[in-house]
Write a structure and sequence with these properties.
By secondary structure, this protein is mainly α. It contains three helices and no strands. The chain is elongated, with a radius of gyration of 18 Å.
Length: 106
């Protein structure tokens, strides 16, 4: 018969860096959303993603042994910063270079 282990699962430390590989993804996603979506809608969606990622998605996935979104407030705020820079680049720079293939929530 299988016995339960009394050991608690050891979690890695929270990601507290200001810049990591996800920063590039946040920047790129912000550029694309700033290009095809109203910048205020893009900002709202991308900013609301952060608490959803930390308080809902991360605890749910950790039940299955998946470490995702396990980050500190510092990292979450830097993600929002990169989102914002990306949205501004997409809205002001990319739209001045070429028209978006479609527009959402304009």
């Amino acid at each position: 018969m299988k016995q339960k282990s009394n050991q608690r699962s050891i979690k890695p430390p929270r990601n507290g860096t200001l810049f990591d590989r996800w920063s590039i993804i946040h920047l790129s996603t912000g550029i694309i959303l700033g290009w095809v979506v109203n910048p205020f809608v893009a900002f709202a969606v991308m900013t609301l993603w952060e608490p959803f990622e930390i308080f809902v998605l991360s605890p749910f996935l950790s039940r299955f042994g998946i470490v995702f979104g396990y980050e500190s407030l510092r990292n979450s705020l830097s993600d929002i910063f990169f989102n914002t820079v990306g949205i501004m680049l997409g809205y002001w720079v990319l739209t001045s270079l070429t028209a978006a293939p479609f527009q959402l929530f304009t």
